[in-house]
Amino acid sequence: MTVPLTSSLYRTTAHAAGGRSGSVRTDDGRLDVRLAPPRRKVPGTTNPEQLFAAGFAACFTSALAEVAAEFGADASAARVACEVELGTTDTPAGYGLAVSLTVSLPGWRAADLQPLLHRADAVCPYSQAVRGNVPLTLLALDDTAATDDRA
Protein backbone atom coordinates (compact mmCIF):
# COMPACT_ATOMS: atom_id res chain seq x y z
CA MET A 1 0.00 0.00 0.00
CA THR A 2 1.35 3.43 -0.94
CA VAL A 3 1.15 6.02 1.83
CA PRO A 4 1.14 9.65 0.63
CA LEU A 5 3.08 12.33 2.49
CA THR A 6 0.97 14.79 4.50
CA SER A 7 3.80 17.35 4.63
CA SER A 8 7.33 17.67 3.29
CA LEU A 9 10.22 17.88 5.76
CA TYR A 10 13.09 17.70 3.28
CA ARG A 11 13.60 17.28 -0.44
CA THR A 12 16.73 16.57 -2.44
CA THR A 13 17.60 15.67 -6.00
CA ALA A 14 20.45 13.53 -7.27
CA HIS A 15 21.52 13.37 -10.90
CA ALA A 16 23.14 10.30 -12.41
CA ALA A 17 24.96 10.01 -15.71
CA GLY A 18 26.56 6.94 -17.22
CA GLY A 19 24.76 4.37 -15.04
CA ARG A 20 26.92 2.11 -12.90
CA SER A 21 30.07 3.30 -14.68
CA GLY A 22 29.25 7.00 -14.45
CA SER A 23 28.71 9.48 -11.67
CA VAL A 24 26.07 10.84 -9.35
CA ARG A 25 25.80 14.25 -7.73
CA THR A 26 23.27 16.17 -5.70
CA ASP A 27 21.96 19.62 -6.61
CA ASP A 28 23.73 21.20 -3.64
CA GLY A 29 27.06 19.51 -4.48
CA ARG A 30 27.38 17.89 -1.04
CA LEU A 31 27.57 14.50 -2.75
CA ASP A 32 29.52 14.12 -5.98
CA VAL A 33 30.91 10.65 -6.61
CA ARG A 34 32.16 8.46 -9.40
CA LEU A 35 30.52 5.07 -9.78
CA ALA A 36 31.73 1.63 -10.79
CA PRO A 37 29.85 -1.67 -10.91
CA PRO A 38 29.91 -3.52 -7.54
CA ARG A 39 32.32 -6.24 -8.67
CA ARG A 40 34.84 -3.80 -10.19
CA LYS A 41 37.32 -2.41 -7.69
CA VAL A 42 38.04 1.02 -9.15
CA PRO A 43 39.86 3.38 -6.75
CA GLY A 44 37.86 6.46 -5.81
CA THR A 45 34.48 5.01 -6.77
CA THR A 46 31.42 3.66 -5.01
CA ASN A 47 28.26 1.96 -6.25
CA PRO A 48 24.52 2.40 -5.75
CA GLU A 49 24.33 -0.47 -3.25
CA GLN A 50 26.96 1.17 -1.02
CA LEU A 51 25.12 4.48 -1.17
CA PHE A 52 21.84 2.75 -0.26
CA ALA A 53 23.53 0.87 2.63
CA ALA A 54 25.01 4.10 4.00
CA GLY A 55 21.68 5.92 3.86
CA PHE A 56 19.74 3.03 5.40
CA ALA A 57 22.27 2.57 8.24
CA ALA A 58 22.20 6.28 9.11
CA CYS A 59 18.41 6.50 8.92
CA PHE A 60 17.89 3.38 11.04
CA THR A 61 20.36 4.63 13.66
CA SER A 62 18.30 7.82 14.01
CA ALA A 63 15.04 5.85 14.19
CA LEU A 64 16.54 3.65 16.92
CA ALA A 65 17.62 6.70 18.94
CA GLU A 66 14.11 8.17 18.64
CA VAL A 67 12.45 4.93 19.75
CA ALA A 68 14.90 4.34 22.62
CA ALA A 69 14.22 7.84 23.94
CA GLU A 70 10.51 6.96 24.17
CA PHE A 71 11.55 4.28 26.68
CA GLY A 72 13.99 6.53 28.54
CA ALA A 73 17.03 4.87 27.00
CA ASP A 74 19.98 6.50 25.26
CA ALA A 75 20.89 4.86 21.95
CA SER A 76 23.37 7.52 20.82
CA ALA A 77 26.22 4.97 21.00
CA ALA A 78 24.41 2.41 18.83
CA ARG A 79 26.30 0.90 15.94
CA VAL A 80 24.33 -0.15 12.87
CA ALA A 81 25.83 -2.16 10.02
CA CYS A 82 23.67 -2.32 6.91
CA GLU A 83 24.47 -5.05 4.42
CA VAL A 84 22.86 -4.65 1.01
CA GLU A 85 22.96 -7.66 -1.28
CA LEU A 86 22.34 -7.40 -5.01
CA GLY A 87 21.27 -10.64 -6.62
CA THR A 88 19.18 -12.32 -9.23
CA THR A 89 15.55 -13.31 -8.75
CA ASP A 90 13.04 -15.57 -10.46
CA THR A 91 10.96 -12.56 -11.49
CA PRO A 92 10.60 -10.82 -14.85
CA ALA A 93 12.84 -8.01 -13.53
CA GLY A 94 15.63 -10.52 -12.92
CA TYR A 95 17.40 -8.56 -10.15
CA GLY A 96 16.64 -7.67 -6.55
CA LEU A 97 18.04 -6.56 -3.24
CA ALA A 98 18.14 -8.03 0.25
CA VAL A 99 19.04 -5.99 3.33
CA SER A 100 20.36 -7.00 6.73
CA LEU A 101 20.74 -4.59 9.65
CA THR A 102 23.05 -5.70 12.48
CA VAL A 103 22.81 -3.52 15.58
CA SER A 104 24.71 -3.31 18.85
CA LEU A 105 24.37 -0.92 21.76
CA PRO A 106 26.97 -0.80 24.54
CA GLY A 107 25.64 -2.33 27.72
CA TRP A 108 22.72 -4.09 26.04
CA ARG A 109 21.93 -7.75 25.53
CA ALA A 110 20.53 -8.78 22.15
CA ALA A 111 17.30 -10.02 23.73
CA ASP A 112 16.66 -6.60 25.29
CA LEU A 113 17.63 -4.70 22.14
CA GLN A 114 15.59 -6.75 19.65
CA PRO A 115 12.19 -5.20 20.58
CA LEU A 116 13.66 -1.72 20.02
CA LEU A 117 14.86 -2.82 16.58
CA HIS A 118 11.34 -3.88 15.63
CA ARG A 119 9.94 -0.57 16.85
CA ALA A 120 12.66 1.37 14.94
CA ASP A 121 11.83 -0.69 11.85
CA ALA A 122 8.22 0.48 12.15
CA VAL A 123 9.20 4.18 12.06
CA CYS A 124 12.32 4.25 9.86
CA PRO A 125 11.51 5.77 6.43
CA TYR A 126 13.95 3.42 4.67
CA SER A 127 12.33 0.39 6.33
CA GLN A 128 8.95 1.65 5.24
CA ALA A 129 10.20 2.17 1.68
CA VAL A 130 11.40 -1.42 1.30
CA ARG A 131 8.66 -3.15 3.33
CA GLY A 132 6.93 -5.85 1.29
CA ASN A 133 9.41 -5.55 -1.55
CA VAL A 134 12.90 -6.21 -0.14
CA PRO A 135 13.73 -8.94 2.38
CA LEU A 136 14.93 -7.24 5.58
CA THR A 137 16.69 -9.02 8.43
CA LEU A 138 17.10 -7.32 11.83
CA LEU A 139 19.83 -8.74 14.04
CA ALA A 140 20.67 -7.49 17.54
CA LEU A 141 24.08 -8.33 18.97
CA ASP A 142 25.10 -8.65 22.60
CA ASP A 143 27.34 -5.75 23.65
CA THR A 144 27.55 -6.16 27.40
CA ALA A 145 31.18 -5.11 27.81
CA ALA A 146 29.89 -1.94 29.48
CA THR A 147 28.17 -2.13 32.86
CA ASP A 148 24.77 -3.73 32.37
CA ASP A 149 22.21 -2.95 35.06
CA ARG A 150 19.58 -5.06 33.30
CA ALA A 151 21.28 -8.32 34.37
Structure description:
The model is unreliable at 147-151 (pLDDT under 50). Helix 1 packs across helix 2. The protein is 28% helix and 26% strand. It starts with 13 loop residues before the first strand and ends in an 11-residue tail after the last strand. With 151 residues, it is an alpha/beta fold. It contains 3 helices and 7 strands; from the N terminus they run ββββαββααβ. Strand 5 and strand 6 (95-104) form a beta hairpin. The strands form 2 sheets. The chain has a 4-stranded mixed beta sheet. It has a 3-stranded mixed beta sheet with strand order 5-6-7.
Label this structure with key terms:
151 residues; alpha/beta; 4-stranded mixed sheet; 3-stranded mixed sheet; 7 strands; 28% helix; 26% strand
Strand neighbour order, sheet with most strands: 1-2-3-4
Q: Runs with pLDDT <50, length 5+?
A: 147-151
Give me the strand/helix succession. Answer: EEEEHEEHHE
Portion in helices? 25-40%
- Strand residue percentage: 25-35%
Write the layout of secondary structure elements.
Layout: E1 14-17, E2 23-26, E3 32-35, E4 45-46, H1 48-70, E5 79-88, E6 95-104, H2 110-123, H3 125-130, E7 136-140
Concise overview:
This protein has 151 residues and is of the alpha/beta class.
